[in-house]
Specification:
Two copies of one chain form a homodimer.
Chain A: E1 24-29, E2 41-46, E3 51-56, H1 64-72, E4 81-89, H2 95-113, E5 120-127, H3 134-138, H4 141-146, H5 153-159, E6 168-176, E7 179-188, E8 201-206, H6 212-225, E9 230-231, E10 241-246, H7 258-277, E11 285-293, H8 296-308, H9 310-317, H10 323-332, E12 343-346, E13 349-353, E14 356-357, H11 363-370, E15 374-380, E16 386-393, H12 397-405
Helix pairs in contact in A: 6-7, 8-10
């Protein structure tokens, strides 16, 4: 199915040129978990001394691999680390068999790579509720370990795709204390917030050194400003995983370096936007900017209410500057709002203010603006200093086709 | 636009035969608020002694008529009461002009009917953000007052339609203390929870007498079990209004009578189901039954998470027994769940239990079941005694067509 989907009109021109990250090597293979004629498993192997941080789905029905990764976070950094990801089967809602599969795969990865099993992380993405053929993955581990190479990250990005219509990568090159440091990341998914075959998985690597505990804090904080600010359809996968590995091969410690944090934020935001740009059926990339809310938390609630509203999303799909639906979404959100203090803008066009349409508003201008592919909807609540920015896409016939017209 | 939509495939065979309710008369007219060639305003006039209760949208951006009605609830019952509703314009987000329109209309209704302005209730449904041409409504009030008749309720139901594809009515005939009592209600809307042109409005009338304060309590309680348990697309109108008038013409007091409450519940549930059955683009009517939750509140959260999930709703549209999406929706809801205690049924078919697909499950059976027009999805959490039932419809190309393909 993934192969039959046309590439999203919002896709970047091509996969970016990612830097080689010292201390990490990649391999990918076709294990035949479910798909035929394509790779479906990737292995990343990190040198000893690598710090590993992770953020995972909060779903109460999260998958066996997610539970296993969460148990292992914060382990010793004197050993190496390995990440093994398969596509085609999510190993979610597979009962006790799910845990068995995770144990078999992590044990086998440990055996073949020499990394202790406590430092072997896995993820699975694909159909829910079918037993994972872990034997097929285990059978490929020798090949994977024998073909590890520093430049294999793009092939790794392709091996973990499911309904993605393009492979997603982003990078940054900076200096920390005068030494060059690189960050490279890959992602898959059509939502954070995604269909049962489009879990979001993100793996980011840097050759900087970074202490384990602050690396975890940094990842969680930046995740709240990037991946937790995107939404395709408000649905959340049982398998969403974001991991960050700092190998230290660049021989410079970036712990608490603000330039590093900025660069990492940029890589994460780029990947998050790419996930939205591959949203199922998406034809518009939409930034929802909330200002003037009573608090940042309220701003986020308003932003998500707008970004998840089926009526707002269908209006955008129809290139309809239907600001009444923005008013509706703010009203229903549950966060504080005062009808008579609201102002709403499409791009630079002031649409509504003081509880009514702006006297200067001309619908023809807004209709022209809505024809663009990248849209900004700004709402000022006029109440306080709270702000939030949310990124989303429109809701189109393409979404219905992908999720209703085909049987999964 | 409303007239161009085909009647929902889930519509009842026809408008029901509603009983005449003593103490209330109806009139409708074509005021030309926005639509041409159809009625767009209705007046209901209640005799002195009528108790009036109301439940309204909780939206923070609710319309001027809603704010006015809320102010007036609980007023004296020794005067009569009037309800004036127009379609075509919602008088929402119209700034101070909105309040002026409400004042002009209610004052004029009071003048022509003799009902004190404190007992004149209004509602408006239609486009948001355009000034209401209240002069056109006022100009018709003499005609309306002159054509009031006890049997006019069906025409009233038609006058308040917007994107509705069928007029909605329901009734009950019971005995209270050996005397016959009737209840008749009308509704419009494609959601509670609805597009900017499909606000939910409900008006119910009975000839029983009922004390004002307990009538308000009863309406609120039954509303939580009926209209607040339906969802079409999770969006909430700025104008949703539900009013109940007890005229006392039957000369029997039904206050706290359990049989009356049951009958009223039946009328409200019937109307609520009709709103879902007219959900935009709906082809399936779906009952989501949650049992075994940690609390009733948790059960409601799980039920709404399933009923509002775009992935669940598109799977239903595609007649796909995709139980993995049910697991996903439970997991993301935020309410308590234990993957290994869940059980899921489609109709009588046990799909999943103890964290995995049931050993007896055959997908072919479930696929056959999903072809039906009325579906029941049952989830037992296995945690406690909490229950909830939610009603919804599927998410189809029809929804996208109505909300994206046409400019409003």
């Amino acid at each position: 199915m993934a192969k039959s989907l046309p590439v999203s009109p919002l896709a970047p021109a091509g996969f970016p040129d990612l830097p080689v990250i010292g201390g990490v090597r990649f391999a990918s293979a076709a294990a035949g978990v479910r798909y035929e004629g394509r790779t479906d498993v990737m292995l990343a192997l990190m040198d000893p001394g690598t710090s590993v941080a992770g953020v995972f789905t909060r779903s109460a029905t999260r998958s066996a691999p997610v539970l296993d990764c969460q148990d292992k976070l914060g382990g010793a950094t004197d050993a190496g680390a390995a990440i093994l990801v398969n596509s085609g089967n999510s190993n979610a809602f597979t009962g006790h068999h799910g845990q068995t599969s995770v144990e078999e795969v992590t044990k086998a990865v440990a055996n073949v790579t020499g990394v202790p099993v406590e430092r072997v992380f896995t993820a699975s993405t694909g159909v829910i509720g079918e037993p994972l053929r872990h034997d097929r993955i285990v059978a490929k581990l020798g090949d994977l370990n024998g073909t590890l190479e520093p430049g294999g990250i793009e092939r790794a990005a392709r091996a973990i795709m499911t309904t993605d219509t393009f492979a997603k990568g982003a990078a940054a090159r900076i200096e920390v204390d005068g030494k060059p440091v690189s960050i490279a990341g890959i992602a898959k998914g059509s939502g954070m917030i995604a269909p049962d075959m489009a879990t979001m998985l993100v793996y980011i690597f840097t050759d900087a050194a970074y202490d384990q505990a602050p690396l975890q804090s940094l990842l969680a904080e930046l995740s709240d400003r990037t991946f937790n600010c995107i939404t395709v359809d408000s649905d959340t996968s049982t398998s969403d995983s974001l991991m960050l590995c700092a190998t230290g091969a660049a021989e410079v410690d970036a712990t608490d370096d603000p330039g590093f944090a900025d660069a990492l934020h940029g890589v994460m935001l780029d990947l998050a936007h790419q996930v939205v740009r591959d949203g199922e059926g998406a034809t518009k990339f939409v930034e929802v900017r909330i200002t003037g809310a009573a608090s940042d938390a309220d701003a986020r609630i308003h932003g998500l209410s707008i970004a998840n509203s089926p009526l707002v999303k269908t209006a955008i799909a129809g290139e309809d500057p239907n600001w009444g639906r923005i008013v509706m979404a703010i009203g229903k959100s549950g966060a504080e709002a005062d009808r008579d203090r609201l102002s709403i803008r499409f791009g630079d066009i002031l649409v509504a203010e003081r509880g009514w349409v702006s006297p200067d508003y001309r619908e023809a201008d807004a209709a022209t603006y809505m024809k663009g592919q990248n849209l900004v909807i700004s709402v000022d609540l006029g109440l306080g200093e709270g702000t939030a920015t949310i990124w989303t896409c429109d809701l189109t016939h393409g979404y219905i086709q992908i999720n209703a017209d085909y049987r999964s």
